User: What shape does this take?
Amino acid sequence: MRALLCFALLIPATSVAAQEQTFGESHFVGDVPVDVVAQWSGRGGRPHGHVEVRAGGAGTTIHDGTPAYAWAAGGSRGVLVALVGASSTVEVAYVPLVDGHPGGAVRSSIHRLASSDRSPIGAAVAERPDGFAVFWQEASNSNPSAIYETYTARFDADGHAVGESQRVQAPWPIADVAWVPSRNQYYFLVYYGGADPRGTRLCGVHVDPASLQNLEHPWWASRPGAIDEARLVVRGDAVSAVYRDDRRLFEIDVTGGSWGTDPAMAPRDHGPIASDEAYGLRVEGGSVAIRRSPLAH
Assistant: This one.
């Protein structure tokens, strides 16, 4: 989901919902493409949100009420979606695929550990060999300059909670998180930038799954730009990011780098992308394949 919607600008959902927006993500469950679609409207003068999972020409509603953001990951049998804005905590919905169509959702609420002065503002979902990990971030309600707090909760392959919520020692605004099997570690793709909206860059850092601490200082993974969404895909030992920059879609290898040094290679330009067009990623023949999906009906 977009950085400018949740991470970079803490805009109340009630002020944005009346603008009639459609946004979301595309994923794969096996070979089946799945879209997670969030729609906001101001019907009757009241902000309203609707989130559904679509596949095979059918859809399953997982939220209908207040405007909500949605992040997801595809697993072996279904898709896990994290919702921020649907309630005072982070809601999780697992939707299995049955004969290529979305089935009924398994819904749960995450137990938050943050103080009452904080609120969830964004999330990321990573598929693991044993299920999923949901990461979410909390911002201070009283101090806009306070650093974010990051937390995680685990779920099995069928969307059931495993263990308790935990604090993650990685305060940077998260773009996406992926599990890297060859390293047995998480890869965090994070945003770094200042007041200039065209000065946002992506940074990478590995996080140990046991201690939930970063293993090095984040490195520069992209050149600066108007970056407002980024997704990860793992290719063996390599990691690539596909991201929006000023209404265009770019791809870059983000496996490694160093702080203060731009990547040596320029990103690959995949052309224009509409604001209501989602994209899904998978590895085909060692390369990143991108599926585009118009979300508005």
